[in-house]
Design goal:
It contains five helices and five strands; from the N terminus they run αβαβαβαββα. The chain is α/β, with parallel strands linked by helices. The protein has a five-stranded mixed beta sheet with strand order 3-2-1-4-5, with helices on both faces. It comes from [Ruminococcus] lactaris ATCC 29176.
Protein backbone atom coordinates (compact mmCIF):
# COMPACT_ATOMS: atom_id res chain seq x y z
CA UNK A 1 0.00 0.00 0.00
CA UNK A 2 1.26 3.49 -0.85
CA UNK A 3 2.23 5.68 2.06
CA UNK A 4 0.16 8.61 3.28
CA UNK A 5 2.28 11.26 1.59
CA UNK A 6 2.03 9.60 -1.84
CA UNK A 7 -1.75 9.22 -1.56
CA UNK A 8 -2.14 12.84 -0.42
CA UNK A 9 -0.02 13.97 -3.38
CA UNK A 10 -2.23 11.99 -5.80
CA UNK A 11 -5.40 13.47 -4.28
CA UNK A 12 -4.07 17.02 -4.69
CA UNK A 13 -3.04 16.24 -8.28
CA UNK A 14 -6.51 14.92 -9.16
CA UNK A 15 -8.13 17.96 -7.52
CA UNK A 16 -5.98 20.28 -9.65
CA UNK A 17 -6.97 18.35 -12.78
CA UNK A 18 -10.62 18.54 -11.77
CA UNK A 19 -10.36 22.33 -11.48
CA UNK A 20 -9.10 22.47 -15.09
CA UNK A 21 -11.81 20.17 -16.48
CA UNK A 22 -14.50 22.09 -14.60
CA UNK A 23 -13.17 25.41 -15.93
CA UNK A 24 -13.13 24.04 -19.50
CA UNK A 25 -16.72 22.88 -19.03
CA UNK A 26 -17.81 26.36 -17.97
CA UNK A 27 -15.96 28.04 -20.88
CA UNK A 28 -17.49 25.66 -23.44
CA UNK A 29 -20.93 26.21 -21.92
CA UNK A 30 -20.59 29.98 -22.37
CA UNK A 31 -19.33 29.67 -25.96
CA UNK A 32 -22.10 27.21 -26.81
CA UNK A 33 -24.76 29.67 -25.64
CA UNK A 34 -23.23 32.47 -27.71
CA UNK A 35 -23.03 30.28 -30.83
CA UNK A 36 -26.66 29.19 -30.58
CA UNK A 37 -27.75 32.82 -30.19
CA UNK A 38 -25.80 33.83 -33.31
CA UNK A 39 -27.46 31.10 -35.33
CA UNK A 40 -30.94 31.96 -34.04
CA UNK A 41 -30.41 35.63 -34.94
CA UNK A 42 -29.41 34.95 -38.56
CA UNK A 43 -31.56 31.92 -39.46
CA UNK A 44 -34.74 33.89 -40.37
CA UNK A 45 -32.93 35.84 -43.10
CA UNK A 46 -31.58 32.74 -44.83
CA UNK A 47 -34.86 30.89 -44.47
CA UNK A 48 -36.45 33.87 -46.22
CA UNK A 49 -33.89 33.55 -49.05
CA UNK A 50 -34.73 29.87 -49.35
CA UNK A 51 -38.39 30.75 -49.50
CA UNK A 52 -37.78 33.30 -52.28
CA UNK A 53 -35.81 30.78 -54.35
CA UNK A 54 -38.62 28.29 -53.88
CA UNK A 55 -41.13 30.95 -54.93
CA UNK A 56 -39.18 31.79 -58.09
CA UNK A 57 -38.85 28.13 -59.05
CA UNK A 58 -42.56 27.60 -58.43
CA UNK A 59 -43.51 30.45 -60.74
CA UNK A 60 -40.85 29.71 -63.35
CA UNK A 61 -40.36 25.93 -63.52
CA UNK A 62 -38.71 26.29 -66.92
CA UNK A 63 -35.88 28.39 -65.44
CA UNK A 64 -32.49 26.71 -65.88
CA UNK A 65 -29.65 28.16 -63.83
CA UNK A 66 -26.00 27.15 -63.68
CA UNK A 67 -26.19 26.56 -59.92
CA UNK A 68 -28.82 23.88 -60.56
CA UNK A 69 -26.90 22.23 -63.39
CA UNK A 70 -26.14 18.65 -62.31
CA UNK A 71 -23.57 18.16 -65.14
CA UNK A 72 -24.76 14.63 -65.70
CA UNK A 73 -22.71 14.38 -68.90
CA UNK A 74 -19.52 14.09 -66.84
CA UNK A 75 -18.75 10.45 -65.88
CA UNK A 76 -18.30 9.60 -62.19
CA UNK A 77 -14.54 8.95 -62.56
CA UNK A 78 -13.93 12.41 -64.01
CA UNK A 79 -16.17 14.44 -61.70
CA UNK A 80 -14.30 17.00 -59.61
CA UNK A 81 -15.60 16.68 -56.05
CA UNK A 82 -14.86 19.29 -53.39
CA UNK A 83 -15.42 18.77 -49.68
CA UNK A 84 -15.54 21.47 -47.02
CA UNK A 85 -14.45 19.53 -43.93
CA UNK A 86 -15.13 21.30 -40.63
CA UNK A 87 -13.12 19.87 -37.72
CA UNK A 88 -11.90 21.35 -34.45
CA UNK A 89 -8.65 23.19 -33.80
CA UNK A 90 -7.90 21.03 -30.75
CA UNK A 91 -8.95 17.80 -29.10
CA UNK A 92 -10.51 17.01 -25.71
CA UNK A 93 -13.92 16.72 -27.36
CA UNK A 94 -14.61 13.00 -27.31
CA UNK A 95 -15.24 11.42 -30.74
CA UNK A 96 -16.13 14.75 -32.39
CA UNK A 97 -13.15 14.89 -34.78
CA UNK A 98 -13.06 11.13 -35.37
CA UNK A 99 -16.66 11.11 -36.66
CA UNK A 100 -15.95 13.91 -39.15
CA UNK A 101 -12.79 12.23 -40.44
CA UNK A 102 -14.65 8.93 -40.82
CA UNK A 103 -17.36 10.53 -42.97
CA UNK A 104 -14.82 12.26 -45.21
CA UNK A 105 -12.92 8.98 -45.63
CA UNK A 106 -16.14 7.48 -47.03
CA UNK A 107 -16.41 10.32 -49.57
CA UNK A 108 -12.78 9.91 -50.61
CA UNK A 109 -13.41 6.20 -51.25
CA UNK A 110 -15.93 7.08 -54.00
CA UNK A 111 -14.82 7.55 -57.64
CA UNK A 112 -13.85 11.02 -58.77
CA UNK A 113 -11.14 13.66 -58.41
CA UNK A 114 -11.30 14.89 -54.86
CA UNK A 115 -10.22 18.22 -53.43
CA UNK A 116 -10.44 19.20 -49.78
CA UNK A 117 -11.16 22.58 -48.22
CA UNK A 118 -10.43 22.05 -44.55
CA UNK A 119 -11.54 24.30 -41.71
CA UNK A 120 -9.80 23.42 -38.44
CA UNK A 121 -6.22 22.52 -37.55
CA UNK A 122 -6.81 18.89 -36.56
CA UNK A 123 -8.40 18.00 -39.89
CA UNK A 124 -5.68 19.87 -41.77
CA UNK A 125 -2.92 17.93 -40.00
CA UNK A 126 -4.69 14.60 -40.51
CA UNK A 127 -5.43 14.89 -44.23
CA UNK A 128 -2.01 16.42 -44.98
CA UNK A 129 -0.66 12.86 -44.57
CA UNK A 130 -3.12 11.49 -47.15
CA UNK A 131 -2.60 11.37 -50.90
CA UNK A 132 -5.36 13.86 -51.68
CA UNK A 133 -5.36 17.43 -52.99
CA UNK A 134 -5.80 20.08 -50.30
CA UNK A 135 -6.36 23.75 -51.00
CA UNK A 136 -3.31 25.14 -49.15
CA UNK A 137 -4.59 28.73 -49.41
CA UNK A 138 -7.75 27.71 -47.60
CA UNK A 139 -6.65 28.27 -43.99
CA UNK A 140 -9.49 29.13 -41.66
CA UNK A 141 -10.01 28.50 -37.98
CA UNK A 142 -13.29 27.28 -36.53
CA UNK A 143 -13.09 29.61 -33.56
CA UNK A 144 -15.61 32.46 -33.49
CA UNK A 145 -17.40 31.82 -36.80
CA UNK A 146 -18.40 35.04 -38.55
CA UNK A 147 -20.42 35.98 -41.61
CA UNK A 148 -17.30 37.52 -43.15
CA UNK A 149 -15.46 34.20 -42.95
CA UNK A 150 -18.43 32.34 -44.42
CA UNK A 151 -18.55 34.88 -47.27
CA UNK A 152 -14.84 34.33 -48.01
CA UNK A 153 -15.32 30.55 -48.07
CA UNK A 154 -18.42 30.69 -50.28
CA UNK A 155 -16.62 33.08 -52.66
CA UNK A 156 -13.84 30.55 -53.24
CA UNK A 157 -16.25 27.65 -53.67
CA UNK A 158 -18.64 29.47 -56.02
CA UNK A 159 -15.81 30.77 -58.21
CA UNK A 160 -14.36 27.28 -58.66
CA UNK A 161 -17.82 25.84 -59.35
CA UNK A 162 -18.55 28.47 -62.01
CA UNK A 163 -15.14 27.86 -63.62
CA UNK A 164 -15.87 24.10 -63.68
CA UNK A 165 -12.94 23.41 -61.38
CA UNK A 166 -15.53 21.69 -59.18
CA UNK A 167 -18.59 19.70 -60.26
CA UNK A 168 -19.92 18.83 -56.81
CA UNK A 169 -19.39 20.40 -53.40
CA UNK A 170 -20.18 18.81 -50.03
CA UNK A 171 -19.96 20.08 -46.47
CA UNK A 172 -18.91 17.59 -43.79
CA UNK A 173 -19.83 18.97 -40.39
CA UNK A 174 -21.51 18.12 -37.10
CA UNK A 175 -25.13 19.12 -36.57
CA UNK A 176 -26.35 19.55 -33.03
CA UNK A 177 -29.60 17.66 -32.50
CA UNK A 178 -30.10 18.70 -28.88
CA UNK A 179 -28.08 19.40 -25.74
CA UNK A 180 -26.94 15.77 -25.43
CA UNK A 181 -26.80 14.56 -29.03
CA UNK A 182 -24.91 15.71 -32.12
CA UNK A 183 -24.62 13.90 -35.45
CA UNK A 184 -21.85 14.18 -38.03
CA UNK A 185 -23.42 14.50 -41.48
CA UNK A 186 -22.68 15.24 -45.12
CA UNK A 187 -24.68 17.99 -46.84
CA UNK A 188 -24.60 18.59 -50.59
CA UNK A 189 -23.91 22.27 -51.19
CA UNK A 190 -23.62 22.43 -54.98
CA UNK A 191 -25.20 21.92 -57.42
CA UNK A 192 -28.52 22.83 -55.84
CA UNK A 193 -31.42 20.39 -56.02
CA UNK A 194 -34.86 21.68 -56.95
CA UNK A 195 -36.41 19.12 -54.61
CA UNK A 196 -34.66 20.79 -51.64
CA UNK A 197 -36.80 23.88 -52.09
CA UNK A 198 -40.07 22.13 -51.39
CA UNK A 199 -41.99 22.59 -54.61
CA UNK A 200 -45.57 23.32 -53.58
CA UNK A 201 -48.54 21.68 -55.31
CA UNK A 202 -51.41 24.13 -55.33
CA UNK A 203 -55.01 23.60 -56.53
CA UNK A 204 -55.90 25.18 -59.86
CA UNK A 205 -58.53 27.45 -58.32
CA UNK A 206 -56.16 28.84 -55.67
CA UNK A 207 -54.85 32.36 -56.08
CA UNK A 208 -51.20 32.53 -57.11
CA UNK A 209 -49.37 35.74 -56.36
CA UNK A 210 -47.72 37.44 -59.28
CA UNK A 211 -44.04 38.28 -59.10
CA UNK A 212 -41.88 40.55 -61.20
CA UNK A 213 -38.16 39.88 -61.45
CA UNK A 214 -35.97 42.84 -62.43
CA UNK A 215 -33.82 43.15 -64.40
CA UNK A 216 -34.25 39.43 -65.25
CA UNK A 217 -34.88 36.11 -63.49
CA UNK A 218 -31.27 35.03 -64.09
CA UNK A 219 -29.93 38.25 -62.57
CA UNK A 220 -32.14 37.80 -59.50
CA UNK A 221 -30.96 34.20 -59.06
CA UNK A 222 -27.35 35.31 -59.53
CA UNK A 223 -27.87 37.66 -56.59
CA UNK A 224 -29.91 35.43 -54.28
CA UNK A 225 -28.15 32.06 -54.66
CA UNK A 226 -24.66 33.22 -53.52
CA UNK A 227 -26.23 34.77 -50.42
CA UNK A 228 -28.11 31.53 -49.78
CA UNK A 229 -24.90 29.47 -50.15
CA UNK A 230 -23.17 31.91 -47.83
CA UNK A 231 -25.92 31.39 -45.26
CA UNK A 232 -25.69 27.61 -45.52
CA UNK A 233 -21.93 27.70 -44.93
CA UNK A 234 -22.34 30.10 -42.03
CA UNK A 235 -24.98 27.84 -40.51
CA UNK A 236 -22.67 24.82 -40.83
CA UNK A 237 -19.79 26.73 -39.22
CA UNK A 238 -21.91 27.80 -36.27
CA UNK A 239 -23.52 24.36 -35.88
CA UNK A 240 -20.08 22.71 -35.93
CA UNK A 241 -18.73 25.26 -33.44
CA UNK A 242 -21.67 24.67 -31.11
CA UNK A 243 -21.40 20.88 -31.50
CA UNK A 244 -17.68 21.00 -30.72
CA UNK A 245 -18.26 22.84 -27.47
CA UNK A 246 -21.18 20.60 -26.62
CA UNK A 247 -18.94 17.55 -27.13
CA UNK A 248 -16.21 19.19 -25.04
CA UNK A 249 -18.73 19.95 -22.29
CA UNK A 250 -19.77 16.30 -22.17
CA UNK A 251 -16.14 15.12 -22.23
CA UNK A 252 -15.15 17.51 -19.45
CA UNK A 253 -18.20 16.58 -17.36
CA UNK A 254 -17.27 12.91 -17.73
CA UNK A 255 -13.67 13.71 -16.76
CA UNK A 256 -14.82 15.72 -13.74
CA UNK A 257 -17.12 12.91 -12.61
CA UNK A 258 -14.29 10.39 -13.00
CA UNK A 259 -11.99 12.67 -10.99
CA UNK A 260 -14.56 12.86 -8.18
CA UNK A 261 -14.85 9.06 -8.12
CA UNK A 262 -11.06 8.74 -8.07
CA UNK A 263 -10.83 11.21 -5.17
CA UNK A 264 -13.35 9.12 -3.22
CA UNK A 265 -11.31 5.96 -3.79
CA UNK A 266 -8.06 7.70 -2.89
CA UNK A 267 -9.66 9.19 0.24
CA UNK A 268 -10.63 5.68 1.37
CA UNK A 269 -7.05 4.50 0.78
CA UNK A 270 -5.74 7.56 2.61
CA UNK A 271 -7.96 6.90 5.62
CA UNK A 272 -6.93 3.25 5.69
CA UNK A 273 -3.25 4.14 5.47
CA UNK A 274 -3.66 6.79 8.17
CA UNK A 275 -5.54 4.36 10.40
CA UNK A 276 -2.84 1.72 9.86
CA UNK A 277 -0.13 4.26 10.73
CA UNK A 278 -1.98 5.30 13.91
CA UNK A 279 -2.48 1.66 14.88
CA UNK A 280 1.20 1.00 14.30
CA UNK A 281 2.17 3.96 16.49
CA UNK A 282 -0.16 2.82 19.29
CA UNK A 283 1.27 -0.69 19.07
CA UNK A 284 4.81 0.65 19.31
CA UNK A 285 3.91 2.86 22.28
CA UNK A 286 2.28 -0.07 24.08
CA UNK A 287 5.24 -2.30 23.34
CA UNK A 288 7.64 0.32 24.64
CA UNK A 289 5.55 0.77 27.82
CA UNK A 290 5.56 -2.95 28.46
CA UNK A 291 9.30 -3.12 27.95
CA UNK A 292 9.79 -0.34 30.49
CA UNK A 293 7.52 -2.11 33.00
CA UNK A 294 9.57 -5.32 32.70
CA UNK A 295 12.81 -3.43 33.32
CA UNK A 296 11.42 -1.84 36.44
Amino acid sequence: MANIREIQSRINSVKDTMKITNAMYMISSSKLTQARKKLADTEPYFYALQGEISRILRHMPELHHSYFNQREEIPAEERKIGSIVITADKGLAGAYNHNIVKLEEEILAKPGQHKLFIVGELGRHYFAKRDVEIDTNFKYTVQRPTMHRARDISGVILEQFRNRELDEVYVVYTRMENSVQAEAEVMKLLPLERSDFGEMKMPLNMYREEIELNPSPMAVMNSIVPSYINGMIYGCLVEAYASEHNARMMAMKSATDSAQELIKELSILYNRARQAAITQEITEVCSGARAQQKKS
